[in-house]
Amino acid sequence: MHVIKAADCKRMPWKNGAGETVEIAIAPIGAGLDDFEWRLSMAHVDTDGPFSAFAGVDRTLAVADGEGLTLSILGRGSITLTKQSEPLTFAGDPATSAVRVNGRVTDLNVMTRRGRFQHRMERLDISGSLDVKVDATVALLVCVTRGVRVEAQGGVARLGPLDTARLDGLSGHVLVVAESRASRCYLIQLERC
Q1: C-alpha distance across the termini of the chain, in Å
Q2: CA nearest 60: which of 183, 191, 189?
Q3: DSSP character string of the chain
């Protein structure tokens, strides 16, 4: 288990230059926006407007903070996402734009290069202790509120708000995620095609 501290994440402009993203993890290491196999990032959305286009990429988006986003995806219509919504998976190819429901929004975004990797993102609401089975080669647990304690194969880590635990090679194992106060995490599981 490797902990990625929020303060250590790389900040960079969006592909379309309209905002800034925080890159949490990318593979292969050192890859750019045009040649990654998978990428996990978080963005602060301060204005309404178009999403960057990512041809050949599948993506999943969740609202980590703020009132929400209404996405308009070519061929799918409008979909409103809030903190209570399940993460939304969509292709990065079609024109997509977003309108904020009310003020600044922070979103969590995972992208995988189609044909190379596939992914799943799951919201975990923690109050007490939760056992979570990992069934992929790479798993990333992102803590979006408060903090949580994570235990995996005898290793223990404490995640603060916006910290991430990366777990490699734990397919078939169980994570124990615990917090006495209500907290929210997202589990992203990545598998090579």
Answers
A1: 23
A2: 189
A3: -EEE-GGGSEEEE-TTSSSEEEEEEEESTT--TTT-SEEEEEEEE-S-EEPPP-TTEEEEEEEEESS-EEEEETTTEEEEE-TTSPPEEEESSS-EEEEESSS-EEEEEEEEETTTEEEEEEEEEEEEEEEEE--SSEEEEEE-SS-EEEEETTEEEEE-TT-EEEEES-TT-EEEEEEEEEEEEEEEEEEE-
Please state the φ and ψ torsions of residue 8, each to the nearest 5 degrees. -95, -5
Q: What is the pTM of this model?
A: 0.93
15 pLDDT exceeds 80? Answer: no
pLDDT digits (tens, 9 = 90+) for 139-174: 999 999 989 999 998 899 999 999 999 999 999 999
Q: Are 178 and 186 in contact (CB under 8 A)?
A: no
Nearest to 117 by CA among 35, 10, 20: 35
Q: Which two tokens stand for residue 187?
A: 């589990």
Question: For residues 158 and 5, what is the distance between their CA atoms, to the nearest angstrom?
Answer: 10
Contact assessment for residue 32 and residue 94, using Cβ atoms and an 8 Å cutoff: no
**Token duo for residue 148:** 């949580």
Nearest alpha carbon to residue 3 among 175, 121, 160:
160
